Request: fold
Amino acid sequence: MTTELAVLQAARLKGRLSPELAAASSGVDLGSATETLSTLCDAGLVKGESSVRLTPEGRQRLAELLEAERAEVDGESLAALYEEFDHHNTDLKQIISDWQLKDGEPNDHTDEQYDHSVMDRLETLDSGFQGLVARIAEVAPRLHTFQARFTNALNQIRAGDASFVARPITDSYHTVWFEFHEELIGLLGLSREQEAAAGRAV
Reply:
């Protein structure tokens, strides 16, 4: 059930889900992810070929699995951890804003010194954030894969691929952060609209 939930949730968050993305998101090997996608496709919960998307039946099944998971999570402990997350979230929002804009204009990324200063701030944020991710995963075990996903994004940046700061169509740091936030919102019974109104959405 855990892998089924993880893969269905990945399909919801990604929109289109390949076996490779399913494996990375759910923390299983590629063979297991491919087998799970095939099973879900046979059950009519996803549809597609090289990449899949949720069917209405898949969305209903996902909602049922998420509700069952939410009932097993210590909501009080997670809410306290979410308050800590909010402080990091404020910092991340500013880092991404500064990555996308420079002196009030779209950042054309020709100023290497400026870009490196922003990436250094992202690395500093990560060093103080990963411990919180680990503690959240103790309360909500399915989220343990996010530690590796944040680390992978940061390693890609260190290796010279700056697109892993905020590129939407990859598992960039910002994309992984968005998905992690979305998971927390769901587990706490909140909504993206509520979070946006409170100024916590990224």
User: Anything to note?
Assistant: The chain has a mean pLDDT of 94. Residues 112-139 form the longest helix (28 residues). Residues 38 and 46 are 9 Å apart (CA to CA). Residues 2-69 form a domain with the Arc Repressor Mutant, subunit A fold (CATH 1.10.10.10).
